[in-house]
Amino acid sequence: MTRRTAFLLASFALYGLSLVLPAVNGHAGIECLVAGWFGFGSGVGFSWLANLSLPAAWTCIGANAKSAGLVLCALTVVLMLSILANPFMMASTSGATTRITDFGPGYFVWILSALAAGLSALFSSIRRTGNPRRDA
Residue 134: enclosing H or E segment and its boundaries? Predict the structure, then answer.
């Protein structure tokens, strides 16, 4: 198994793990994933877009679009961290927001999933150096 594949599989596993762990204010990651898109109307849902850019990065990495995968991983991490600048989340579908007071392990594992994908993209873009092929 190549390093690229190992980090890509680790990214999948970490993302899945982040869904079952408490992510913010005691809510499991799956709750944040399902309800997060409601935040766009109130301007608090931009970090949720990372849930769209990460699978796009995975696809690029798997298709050997190395640069695109790396750029998407960087964008994903920026989106994931953007919640720190505006630490609010939807309290209900009515548009009410609540301040995030607790970032649980699921949030940090979510970020690790994007970093692992970024390492996968980085390893796929590193050229192997070796002896050039010699024609006899």
Answer: none
Burial label, 1 (beta-carbon count in 10 A; 0-12, 13-18, 19+): exposed
Please list the residues that pair with 24 across neighbouring strands: 27, 103
Per-residue pLDDT of the chain (136 residues; tens, 9 = 90+): 888 899 999 999 999 999 999 999 999 999 999 888 877 766 777 899 999 999 999 999 999 898 999 999 999 999 999 999 988 888 777 777 889 999 999 999 999 999 999 999 998 777 555 544 554 4
Distance of CA 121 to the CA centre of its chain: 13
Q: Is the pTM of this model over 0.85?
A: yes
Q: How many CB atoms lie within 10 A of CB 65?
A: 16
| Distance (Å, whole) CA 9 – CA 31 | 23
Strand partners, 90: 97
Two tokens at 24?
């913010």
